[in-house]
Amino acid sequence: MSARPPRSPTPIPFPATHQPIRHDSAPLHVAGTARYVDDMPEPPGLLHVALGQSAKAHARILSIDLSAVRAYPGVVAVLTAADIPGQNDVGPVVADDPIFAETLVEYVGQSLFAVAATTRIAARAAARLAKVTYDELPAIITIADARAADSHILPPKRVERGDPPGALATSPHRLSGHLAMGGQDHFYLEGQISMAIPGEDGDMHVLCSTQHPSEVQHLVARALGRPDNHVVVEVRRMGGGFGGKETQASLFAAAASLVADRTGRPAKLRLDRDDDMVMTGKRHDFEVAYDVGFDADGRILALDLTLESRCGMSTDLSGAINDRAIFHADNCYFLPNVRITSYRYKTHTVSNTAFRGFGGPQGMLAIEGVVDDIAQHLGLDPLAVRRANLYGGPDRNITPYGMKVEDFIADSLLDRLESTSSYQARRTAIAAFNAASPVLKRGIALTPVKFGISFTTSFLNQAGALIQVYSDGSVLLNHGGTEMGQGLYTKVAQVVADVFGIGLDRVRITSTRTDKVPNTSATAASAGADLNGMASFNAARTIRDRLSAFIAARWGVEPTTLSFAHGKVTAGEHAISFDDLVRQAYLARVSLSATGFYATPKIDVDKETLIGRPFYYFAYGAAVSEVVIDTLTGETKLLAVDILHDCGTSLNPVLDRGQVEGAYVQGMGWLTMEELVFDAAGRLRTHAPSTYKIPGCGDIPDHFKVDLVNQPNREETIHRSKAVGEPPFMLAISAYHAIKAAVAASGGSGPVKLDAPATPERVLMAVRARQSGTGA
Amino acid sequence: MADCVRFVHRGQVVTLSDVPPTRTVLDYLREDRGRRGTKEGCNEGDCGACTIVLGTRVGVLGMAEAESIQYRAVNACILFVTALDGKELVTVEDLAGPDGTLHPIQQAMVDHHGSQCGFCTPGFVMSLFALYHTDAEPDRTRIDAALAGNLCRCTGYRPIVDAARAMGRAPDTYTAQMTETLALLRSIERRETLSHPGGTAFAPATSDQLAELLLTHPDATIVAGGTDVGLWVTKQMRDLGTIIHIGGIRDLAGISRKDGFITIGATATVTDAAEILAPLYPDLGDLFRRYGSEQVRSSATLGGNIANGSPIGDSMPALIALGSTLVLRCGGMTREMPLEDFFLSYRKTALQPGEFVAAIRVPEPSADRLFACYKISKRFDQDISAVMAGFGLTLQDGIVTAARLAFGGMAGTPKRATNAEAALIGHPFDATAAKQAAAALAQDFQPLTDMRASADYRLITAGNLILKWQMEQALPPTATRVPAFARAIGGAA
């Protein structure tokens, strides 16, 4: 197979930055030659690992009989908690995520033991043969259960400003409401996988599909009872991540490593899809309650907002996720008197985790729901109410958490998109259509996005890079960021190529490895290009400065007069090719490798009160979505999407557009069709694509227009670009509100009661409530 | 009897004599052959990452100049290797030229930025390869149909649709080498039963061989397309016992039209059946367009969908509403029964030991009969129905004389709503009658609540569908149905 690399001749523009350059792996992707962990050649003696799972949501383990598991043909080893030399835990923040449950299980699917066999089928079959006896305990499954039981994984947090109760009492209008929104499975196409290869003297090399190699390294080392310097974690690429491989890869990496360590044989653990969906955390589902006071224009005077989330059985990242929900419960709107209270519930379900947006979407959906309800209550165009509430002016530019909004552009985005999408004309046409259409109703909505960029855990905002220039002038690039399809490697390589003034084809992009760049943060929070782009820029500049000093001295010119461009270095009439310069520098004993480092400036937030500046800057966007609904069945169809999104000065407009479109569709899935159903016993009933439906090709309208706002970031980011991974996810809130608008058109008046996801069932029930007058 | 599976791959005949009969093509490719371009995403035929293409000899068989190869996408993860027998196999690694030059589809995907993480990409490439070979200028509807079985979580699909529109149709090496490939396919045509070593799996070549085998192995698991049975292996890890693979029986795959009936052989794929039925019953065409995905329809058979006895199979309510019958065969005896009588209880059918479904007979349209069907699911494409409804009425002088209202998802079997039917008979088909029929559904069904829908939703929607159907007598479907697709259906253009 594939003796030769696939050829896809594409001219490489120079300079590369800001150019629409394809993903570096695209020719490999389409030829099937891009290697994921499961595609790596399998080392001789490889064992395949499967995990035994809890059948109960909450129970004491009375006994585990593994004799049938051990006796199954092909089984080589069975490991339990007693076989762990180090710590039985993979909790990323708090040590409450056991690798193998010992005495207590707290969700259906929780890992009990590992079985290693000579084939994957044998391991999977054997894992089901354990005889476990349980003493069942009362299980808390839903948010309502947790509220009733006062079951918290972390203490509640509150951000408050002004006098919310007083301002509510004196507001001319007052409304309260409730909204429930579901969680979301990541459904990365490549499931969780790790392959651990034992080396000499306790070394372990782990190939892992993870967004956070340093954390996997640390947790594997801790489980093995060894220092971090014994473990190397390597990631070339993931088949999708979306936050689901930030903390969730560790359990499987640890289990594979334990098997490798105990048996001395390489070990691979690849989850079957159903197991992946049952055993790994998801987006937090939320319930929201609000009490809002406003004036006749819909301008909010006071808001008391409660956010409740299902965190699952352990802490994981739920603290930071729920913090971010608070940080986005203002979206683009100034809230003069505000109280936001956040409850983080412990439940006996899988521990919920990071997912694109990281709490931001839930906070934003909450405030957008409030604004929409105000508009419906007053009978105003929701866009007018949104506009009335925007940040702006010296009296209206402080967020509830005390950060000054200095770079606000959502107002101009709304204006521009309202015009380019013909929002008002379409709104009129839709009203006419609805008046004449008995069964089908259409709806349209325009919603804005303001998303804070930076890890809210401030110390994570750092990155490192390692650049090696070989004596032939070719460049090897490593940084702490991981590639999950977003094109990070391509973007960073563009930056580096331009520093040296060489073609992008001279920069080789290789795996992210913990032995190349240490102590990295997860590729998360949209910050991959911001952080690693700048760290790599700094590394490249270090080498370029050395090269400059060397050649400037030789030529007798000032280093500042040198130009690095088109593969050449020039100064006046002096010129040398980059490759020759490197060769000569090497002969002159100039160091040709360097590390680079970057720490985001300006950020500072109190992690208890949440007051301060958690974000370096904000990214903005706005979207118009139009839908049609069937009032007899609740079926919906997205008809048209117009997006205007802010990537600063885009590092790569085609990759950024890809992020915007993909994020919108993923958000649309969250809000319309992706439904996680847990039964009363805590079993996930939607654990495969047969029952859990993510958007398909046919769900995407032909009219899907995306424009990027090409304005420089006001902060000094890498080439004044902006982060793009998460912010556009929330553009899909417009699709949800378009459905609400269509439901409103089916009859009745006042706010539309519609929980998310807006499945056909929820839409039909909302329509019936409107038509029977119980919906308001 | 033959004892090895033979197929064509990269211009060579490949012979497999030692692969277990429930080995999936995906595991065979990745683990046995080390061809790891084809990916496993879900292991149940729902995500399409494992899509491969099978080439089948079609046309006037035996007349070399009238033969051609039909390329169809299938899911390798739930396909047993036996299904490769007699076919040409194409996987993602096979498309680029020997010097690494990408196939036009692959190049279009690169040029239009159709991959991000790249894990689903090989599957998309293969679905587009099948499309490339069946439709010269696919419109958006056709593209959506071709890609409905491929999930992408990164791109949002727009760039992939652009690639599909731009891929062109310059003849590729598969077209150029068709004559040689056809000769190879002819050389491996099988007329005798294939028997796996160990004697626990068979693949008869004719219906007579099947009838005989079933008499000696009445408990055997019959596998046609395997789109459901495959999951018994990949997900439930069940031991299937003796298997009889019937997908290669050509004389059960035929579709004929005479005496007012369309007779569909039990191993005709859903794709093939849809091509014949869609022009006759446009609603049925729409339904089949949403039945699984192109990959599923290219493997799955109508006979399998019925014989499987599932309460949520899409085709049964529609076929029952049309008054279809089943031809059952046991040894040399055949009998025919109304389709609705076939389903006894949950997953239990009227099949006797040694008996098999030989054909489905669907009446042709007539002027005095109305027909419609509706599928309600969370996602439009490739989703299992929450409610499936098939409605048929016979009218004389404006009065309903016979009614067949059949539903799926409402009970343990596909079932007629006899009370609702009774409410219509003897009345004009007007809003009042429709309302009464809808109200009567509560006597016909006590549906379940599950992850797809609540009992309430099912009952309300089922009734609303009757109301909608009645409204559609006066309103065009564009006024009553969300405009998800035009009336177009998969298959050769």
UniProtKB/TrEMBL annotation, chain A:
<comment type="similarity">
    <text>Belongs to the xanthine dehydrogenase family.</text>
</comment>
<keyword id="KW-0614">Plasmid</keyword>
<dbReference type="InterPro" id="IPR016208">
    <property type="entry name" value="Ald_Oxase/xanthine_DH-like"/>
</dbReference>
<dbReference type="InterPro" id="IPR008274">
    <property type="entry name" value="AldOxase/xan_DH_MoCoBD1"/>
</dbReference>
<protein>
    <submittedName>
        <fullName>Xanthine dehydrogenase molybdopterin binding subunit</fullName>
    </submittedName>
</protein>
<dbReference type="InterPro" id="IPR014309">
    <property type="entry name" value="Xanthine_DH_Mopterin-bd_su"/>
</dbReference>
<dbReference type="InterPro" id="IPR037165">
    <property type="entry name" value="AldOxase/xan_DH_Mopterin-bd_sf"/>
</dbReference>
<feature type="compositionally biased region" description="Pro residues">
    <location>
        <begin position="1"/>
        <end position="14"/>
    </location>
</feature>
<keyword id="KW-0001">2Fe-2S</keyword>
<dbReference type="Pfam" id="PF01315">
    <property type="entry name" value="Ald_Xan_dh_C"/>
</dbReference>
<dbReference type="GO" id="GO:0005506">
    <property type="term" value="F:iron ion binding"/>
</dbReference>
<dbReference type="GO" id="GO:0030151">
    <property type="term" value="F:molybdenum ion binding"/>
</dbReference>
<dbReference type="InterPro" id="IPR000674">
    <property type="entry name" value="Ald_Oxase/Xan_DH_a/b"/>
</dbReference>
<dbReference type="GO" id="GO:0016491">
    <property type="term" value="F:oxidoreductase activity"/>
</dbReference>
<keyword id="KW-0411">Iron-sulfur</keyword>
<dbReference type="InterPro" id="IPR036856">
    <property type="entry name" value="Ald_Oxase/Xan_DH_a/b_sf"/>
</dbReference>
<feature type="region of interest" description="Disordered">
    <location>
        <begin position="1"/>
        <end position="24"/>
    </location>
</feature>
<dbReference type="Pfam" id="PF20256">
    <property type="entry name" value="MoCoBD_2"/>
</dbReference>
<keyword id="KW-0479">Metal-binding</keyword>
<dbReference type="GO" id="GO:0051537">
    <property type="term" value="F:2 iron, 2 sulfur cluster binding"/>
</dbReference>
<dbReference type="Pfam" id="PF02738">
    <property type="entry name" value="MoCoBD_1"/>
</dbReference>
<keyword id="KW-0560">Oxidoreductase</keyword>
From TrEMBL, chain B:
<dbReference type="GO" id="GO:0005506">
    <property type="term" value="F:iron ion binding"/>
</dbReference>
<keyword id="KW-0560">Oxidoreductase</keyword>
<dbReference type="InterPro" id="IPR036010">
    <property type="entry name" value="2Fe-2S_ferredoxin-like_sf"/>
</dbReference>
<dbReference type="InterPro" id="IPR014307">
    <property type="entry name" value="Xanthine_DH_ssu"/>
</dbReference>
<keyword id="KW-0408">Iron</keyword>
<protein>
    <submittedName>
        <fullName>Xanthine dehydrogenase small subunit</fullName>
    </submittedName>
</protein>
<dbReference type="Pfam" id="PF00111">
    <property type="entry name" value="Fer2"/>
</dbReference>
<dbReference type="InterPro" id="IPR016166">
    <property type="entry name" value="FAD-bd_PCMH"/>
</dbReference>
<dbReference type="InterPro" id="IPR016167">
    <property type="entry name" value="FAD-bd_PCMH_sub1"/>
</dbReference>
<dbReference type="InterPro" id="IPR012175">
    <property type="entry name" value="Xanth_DH_ssu_bac"/>
</dbReference>
<keyword id="KW-0285">Flavoprotein</keyword>
<keyword id="KW-0479">Metal-binding</keyword>
<keyword id="KW-0614">Plasmid</keyword>
<dbReference type="InterPro" id="IPR016208">
    <property type="entry name" value="Ald_Oxase/xanthine_DH-like"/>
</dbReference>
<dbReference type="GO" id="GO:0051537">
    <property type="term" value="F:2 iron, 2 sulfur cluster binding"/>
</dbReference>
<dbReference type="GO" id="GO:0004854">
    <property type="term" value="F:xanthine dehydrogenase activity"/>
</dbReference>
<dbReference type="GO" id="GO:0071949">
    <property type="term" value="F:FAD binding"/>
</dbReference>
<dbReference type="InterPro" id="IPR012675">
    <property type="entry name" value="Beta-grasp_dom_sf"/>
</dbReference>
<dbReference type="InterPro" id="IPR005107">
    <property type="entry name" value="CO_DH_flav_C"/>
</dbReference>
<dbReference type="Pfam" id="PF01799">
    <property type="entry name" value="Fer2_2"/>
</dbReference>
<dbReference type="InterPro" id="IPR006058">
    <property type="entry name" value="2Fe2S_fd_BS"/>
</dbReference>
<dbReference type="InterPro" id="IPR002346">
    <property type="entry name" value="Mopterin_DH_FAD-bd"/>
</dbReference>
